Amino acid sequence: MAAPTAESEELLAELQQQITASEQQDSQSPLLISLYNHLGEAYAKQYDYPAALECYEQAYTWLKPSDPSLEKQMLS
Question: In angstroms, how far is CA 39 from the centroid of its own chain?
Fold first, then answer.
């Protein structure tokens, strides 16, 4: 696993704050899909694949009930 840089740690913290704020404002917000996906990408860039996978799974969980057409695109 790559050592996280100050910039990447800042990005992770910012994304996690945005997720928390979005969940508090609207627990069904479609924005959560994007935020969890971006958080997964940030973890993947650090080679933290277990954390990235958790985020991608969370994004998929939010995606699944909201829009079946997007789910099909995501899986292809």
Answer: 4
pTM of the complete model: 0.76
* Class of the CATH-defined domain 6-75: mainly alpha
Q: Residue 30: which of 67, 69, 1 has the closest Cα?
A: 67
Q: How many helices (H) and strands (E) does the chain have?
A: 4, 0
33 HSE (CA, 13 A, CB side): 14
Residue 71: burial class (beta carbons within 10 Å; 0-12, 13-18, 19+): middle
The sign of the dihedral angle between the CA atoms of 60, 64, 65, 68 is positive
Counting Cα atoms < 13 Å in the Cβ hemisphere of 52 gives 11
Using one digit for the tens of pLDDT, what is the confidence trace for 48-65?
A: 999 999 999 999 887 765
